[in-house]
Design brief:
Layout: H1 6-12, E1 18-20, E2 23-30, E3 36-44, E4 52-59, H2 69-82, E5 89-93, H3 101-114, E6 121-129, E7 135-143, H4 149-164
Parallel strand pairs: 4-5
Antiparallel strand pairs: 1-2, 2-3, 3-4, 5-7, 6-7
Helix pairs in contact: 1-2
């Protein structure tokens, strides 16, 4: 089970995260632009035998958000606290409801790669078209010192290939 030290995150983050009462791994915040976000971690079964978590970013009030460096830093602070656990594995799937998943994928990847602390991590990403023709984007982030790093990278690659296969 993932353990998040919210006091530590809030000491580093420009926005204050508040715990969401119904889920111990979800947090809410409101930006300077009035955008309400819920951020959190949900167990994911993409890699059987690994405690992987899907990272969720939800714009609760569906307001447009300009590029907000404070939001980026808050999200990165939360993610780095998540990765204080040496065996943490993160999966990021981009929401497809408004056809902006490509933008979300590029933004998340740029945030990750722009961070000064990203050197200890591997970032794997893939795009997968579903049967309706919608492009889906997924990323896996794992510490390079994870004891099962090679196994995780291989399983992620195999899962992506499986999802890319067209049903016969």
């Amino acid at each position: 089970m993932v353990n998040i030290n919210l006091e530590k995150v809030n000491a580093e983050a420009p926005y204050t995260l508040e715990p969401v009462p119904y889920d111990s791994l979800f947090y809410s915040l409101t930006t300077d632009y009035g955008v309400n976000y819920t951020l959190g971690f949900m167990p994911n079964e993409l890699l059987p035998g690994i405690d992987a978590y899907e990272f969720i970013i939800s714009n609760v009030n569906n307001r447009k958000s300009p590029r907000d460096l404070k939001l980026r830093q808050t999200i990165l602070s939360l993610l780095y606290e998540f990765f204080c656990q040496p065996e943490a594995v993160l999966i990021y799937l981009c929401e497809t409801g408004d056809n902006r998943q490509g933008y979300r994928s590029r933004l998340f990847e740029s945030w990750f790669h722009a961070s000064s602390r990203q050197r200890g991590f591997a970032y794997f990403s893939a795009d997968i078209m579903d049967e309706e023709g919608t492009m889906n984007y997924v990323a896996l982030v794992v510490r390079i010192d994870h004891p099962r790093f090679s196994w995780i990278a291989t399983r992620f690659s195999e899962a992506v290939q499986l999802f890319r296969k067209k049903p016969e």
